Amino acid sequence: TANLSTNAPSDAAVVWVRGTRKALAVTTDCNGRYVRADPRAGAIIAVAEAARNIACTGGEPLGVTNCLNFGNPYDPEVYYQFVHAIKGMGEACLAFDTPVPGGNVSFYNQHPAGAVYPPPTIGMVGLLTDVDQRMTLDFKKPGDVVYLLGEVTADIGSSEYLHKVHGAEFSPAPRFDIDAELRLHKALAGLIRERLVSSAHDVSEGGVFIALLESAMPRGLGFEASAADRGGRKDAIWFGASQGRAVVSGDPAS
What we know:
By secondary structure, this protein is of the alpha+beta class.
């Protein structure tokens, strides 16, 4: 392991701790549109997505720092965003057992049209007890089977698709269930530990289809996927930002 490289596409950056078998997984996350739509839910999602990135890399979350960026706190709407984002962040950090030893707050982030979308940015560090069990996001070879972990939903709120393609600036925050999120992380840990999957990538901005593309592109591979008729909008199924999901792949013999 003298020249071990962890430079590979993964949901969190992996830093090997020299002289040990351990590594640190590091990530940052936040989507200001989610927080603008629902400050409490948006902040919870920011913590949960950071933890999901750590889980998809094979690590266990350890702790959080933050950079809380908001507009003028004397504006009642901005102050409301700040208070409820803090509450949501606290709830999520308790759920994921990630203490917050430090962070910072930045107010008066304004532009001529008003306050910026509020991004309480989360920085999270996690631990891999065995660096050889680190997981990457790229599909490995033709013939592997791709699975979606988590619920298939037609939720389209605050998605990049709804915003960029349809021009909807404001919509509800994405669907989120903290218990389902915790179950997903536990499942990912077991699959990676038992070497039952060869890639893992969280579903976040862009939805399932973008997650599939991001996993296929590093090795120039394609994929075949279909959505069963579950009712509702198929564009929401493919491009919705509902949380608590991940795309994994592996040898069908596994």
